Amino acid sequence: MADEIKKEDGSVVLKDEKGRALTVREPDFLQEARITRLCGEASTNVGYMYAYVFPSIWVTRIDDNPVPFPTTFLQLEALIGRVGRNGCGVVLKHMKEARSSVAHEDGVKN
């Protein structure tokens, strides 16, 4: 990805169409489980989870501002609104590329 900067801590900085620097990192397994539980019945809506929730929770900073991991549904909704359509699109693309890269590496090992 052209507008991607990899950092030593494993996070990646992406630029969205608004020019914002989004620092992203894959949440750990427990964080994903907590978000799924937090979403309750909405967690069964795959489109909602993968288009809005998961890309938003990958974001750890917007520009120089830290983004705390949401612990309430209202915080999650605020985060989705803050990341927005442009941010979610950039993060989704990165997520897809990151996952296909891991799948490729696993295939090469086998």
Overall description:
With 110 residues, the chain is an alpha+beta fold. The chain has one domain. It has helices at 29-39, 46-58, 73-109, and strands spanning 4-6, 12-15, 21-24, 59-62, 65-66. A five-stranded antiparallel sheet has the order 1-2-3-4-5. Helix 2 packs across helix 3. It is globular and about 35 Å long. The protein starts with a strand and ends with a helix. The model has no long low-confidence stretch (mean pLDDT 90).
Overall pLDDT metric: 90
Strand line-up in the sheet with most strands: 1-2-3-4-5
Distance between the termini: 26 Å
Q: How many distinct beta strands?
A: 5
Give the C-alpha Rg.
14 Å
Number of helices: 3
Approximately how much helix is present in the residues?
A: 55-70%
**Approximately how much beta-strand content do the residues carry?**
15-25%
Task: Label the structural class.
Answer: alpha+beta
Q: Which series of helices and strands comes N to C?
A: EEEHHEEH
Q: How many domains make up the 3D coordinates?
A: 1
